[in-house]
Amino acid sequence: MTETKSRSPEYRMAAGALGGLRQDLFRDAFDYRPLERMRTDGPLLRHLSERTRERIAWTPHALVGAAALFVVLVGLVSADSGALRMAVGTVMLMLIPAITVLMTLVRPVGAFWISMALTPFEAVVGGGYWPWVPSTFLSHLTVLVVVAARTRPRTAAWMWGLTLAFGAVLDNLGGWHPSSTTSVFAVVSAFALLLVAVVQVRRDAEREVTVQRTVTAVERDRRTLLEERTTIARELHDVVAHHMSVVAIQAEAAPYRVENPPPELEQAFATIRENAVAALTELRRVLGVVRAEDQQAPDAPQPTLAQLDGLLANVREAGLETEKTVTGAVRELPQGVELSAYRIIQEALSNTLRHAPGATAKVEIGYVLSGLGLRVVNGPPTGPVQPSPGAGHGITGMRERVAMLDGDMTAVATAEGGYEITAFIPVRPADESHETYGRHGKTDEPYGTDDPYGTGERLGTRPEKREIRLEKTEEAERA
To answer: Where residue 455 falls among pLDDT bands split at 50, 70, 90?
Structure first.
């Protein structure tokens, strides 16, 4: 370990470079790596027919085949005229370079090494130029470009350097050659590989940006979902806290509504009140966790469908013409259902104001035995639509509210160019039976009577009991 640390940075850099060379050009050099077909899902090709895109996908293979055919033609022109030499030259200068080019489709790195190894033999057979005759010049250049496009810029740099070193060795082998093509090949291949590297770097950068955008979009959607769930939890806290307060107050007051209640009954109601107050304390702690630091506790109860007319009046003042239609027998629903329905309508109308300026909206509410149906539909915009950040987040919140209540929701564009939100929130009969309404507001008393215990005494007939109850009620509310 001490020896490794004492090595110089230059040594480590050289060792890393040689390791990269071994990994790029020597390790598994002749592995089968077929060229993939071109993607046809881009903005220009996606509108073509399926059959046309299927053919266009083979464009890279067709270009390599065309290059191999061109190498054959160049080799045929550059072959000598002697009979025997013509036959050997036909094979060496036409077929073998073309096969090397075609080999890049399946074994790209292996094609590079074979092209390098055949260069001197083809130069001897071809004569005239050294070390690259016209056919091998074109075939090796094609091999370099194809392999560089299929690998990475570092591999292209290694191939170019090895090719120049190999050409320099051949130039000095047996003396200087006046017809050397090494310098010309170095310049031409450098420009070709530089162009391929630039395109490849840009393509990789675009792919990285696309991946980052996808990851960012996923994280943003996840964060938005958590924020919507936190908002729903804060609102439902007020609903649950109201019910627990009612339980605590009625548990405290119940013994005073019965003359001479047994001790067991008083103890039972005292236990109920203690548990309700403890639950309220825990709810406040949970609310402190989910509430933002700069958010204040609401000073008004959560809205219900009874306040819907006020909401519609506000959006009309903002410029949105809205029409409301109510069908079925209107009745009080569980507070969580009414709160969610109100928020869904509110968000749908807000989306209309943001994304469809000048449009009109219709709000339909349907009361059925099994639940509550909602429909908010708006027409197409008549004014300029301003870009709005965070598009789709409101729909996410609406879906979360509906899913929390085991309902269904759809959000689709209409044929006229508008948008439609439909939702159904089921309401079980048991949910409504537990929330009845008496003279003193929402209670858990059966049928909302003032005499739940059957004593024949109603509230108000015994003032001393009522005064004690009010004192205890105020104490419970302060707790």
So the answer is: very low
pLDDT digits (tens, 9 = 90+) for 85-132: 555 556 666 788 899 999 999 999 999 999 999 888 887 776 667 888
In this model, does residue 81 exceed pLDDT 60?
A: no
Three-state DSSP string of the chain: CHHHHHCCHHHHHHHHHHHHHHHHHHCCCCCCCCCCCCCCCCCCCCCCCHHHHHHHCCHHHHHHHHHHHHHHHHHHHHCCCCHHHHHHHHHHHHHHHHHHHHHCCCCHHHHHHHHHHHHHHHHHHHCCCECCCHHHHHHHHHHHHHHHHHCCHHHHHHHHHHHHHHHHHHHCCCCCCCCECHHHHHHHHHHHHHHHHHHHHHHHHHHHHHHHHHHHHHHHHHHHHHHHHHHHHHHHHHHHHHHHHHHHHHHHHHHHHCCCCCHHHHHHHHHHHHHHHHHHHHHHHHHHHHCCCCCCCCCCCCCCHHHHHHHHHHHHHCCCEEEEEEECCCCCCCHHHHHHHHHHHHHHHHHHHHHCCCCEEEEEEEEECCEEEEEEEECCCCCCCCCCCCCCHHHHHHHHHHHHCCCEEEEEECCCCCEEEEEEEECCHHHHHCCEEECCEEECCHHHCCCCCCCCCCCCCCHHHHHHHHHHHHHHHHC
pTM for the structure as a whole: 0.53
pLDDT of res. 341: 92
